[in-house]
Every structure is written in C-alpha cells, then in structure tokens.
Write a structure and sequence with these properties.
- The chain is built from five helices and seven strands, in the order βββααβββαβαα.
- It is α+β, with helices and mostly antiparallel strands.
- It has a single domain, classed as Bifunctional nuclease domain, CATH 3.10.690.10.
Length: 151
C-alpha cells in the first residue's frame, strides 16, 4: 500500500438531522460522512455482526462475491466534490485465468457497509484526509456525554 492513502476505521455512528453521521478516522483525525439513516443502520449491523432475518442487498453482493471467488481487498474514500464523497471498492479475483484486480466506483456508505461485512480495511486518500475537518473533539464530547452510538 502506497503512502497516498491513510488507514482509517469507523469510529462511531450517530443519528443526525437528515440521516446518520458516520465518524471515520484514526488516532490522528476523525471526520464525518453523512449517510441515509438506513445505511447507518446497515453499517452498524455489519460492524456488530447483527443477525438478520433475510439477506440485505450487501449480503447478496457478498454471496455473489463468494460464488465468483471475489475478495474485497479494501475500500478507499477518494475525494470530496460539491459536498459529496466518492469511494472505490478494490476487488480481487484469482482463478484459472489468473489474478485480476478491479476498482469499482461506489457510494462511500456502500463501501463502508461492505468493508464492515467483509472485515476489509478502509483507507482515505491522503490529500483528502489532510483537507477534511477534524471532528475528534466532537466525537470525544459525544462519548463523554454518555450518548450511545450504533457501532
């Protein structure tokens, strides 16, 4: 892995005005990506290994990946344009034809859900990580106030 990315993890998921705030970061910095409420719940379910009565869409993709021998190597949150984050799934398939790596454009919320589901690492482009506002103190105050997050 090159120095162009920074390793991060989901640090918390909290209800917000129009969905959920997903706090992502590491010991250096934490930032927030706003997601739809249901996606916040899905990410939390995968992080907590919550059993589900029926497969979710991300479970379906996981089963398809398994069926074709595809592994989710990592997800990368790549950029922020017009208040919208962009991300990529980095997939690997190793079969009789050889090894193939494919990058797929996807919403960060879907990437985070699939990373949680597959226990795959999450990265942020280094230049993006340098530019995002540090929300570590906000997350710390929320934890200190006793509010519970969903992760």
């Amino acid at each position: 892995m090159s120095n162009d990315v920074v390793a991060v993890e989901v640090r918390g998921i909290l209800p917000a005005n129009s969905g959920c705030a997903v706090f992502i970061g590491n010991e250096e910095k934490v930032f927030v990506i706003q997601v739809e409420h249901n996606m916040g719940a899905v990410i939390g379910m995968f992080l907590n290994d919550t059993p589900k009565e029926r497969p979710l869409t991300h479970d379906l993709f996981g089963h398809v990946f398994d069926g074709f021998g595809i592994q989710l190597l990592r997800v990368v949150i790549t950029e922020l344009k017009n208040s919208t984050y962009y991300a990529r799934l980095i997939l690997e398939q190793d079969n009789e034809l050889g090894r193939k790596i494919v990058e797929v454009d996807a919403r960060p919320s879907d990437c985070l859900a699939m990373a949680a589901q597959h226990k795959s690492p999450i990265y942020v482009a280094a230049n993006l990580f340098a530019d995002v506002e540090d929300m570590s103190e906000v997350l710390s105050r929320i934890h200190d106030s006793g509010e519970q997050d969903e992760d």
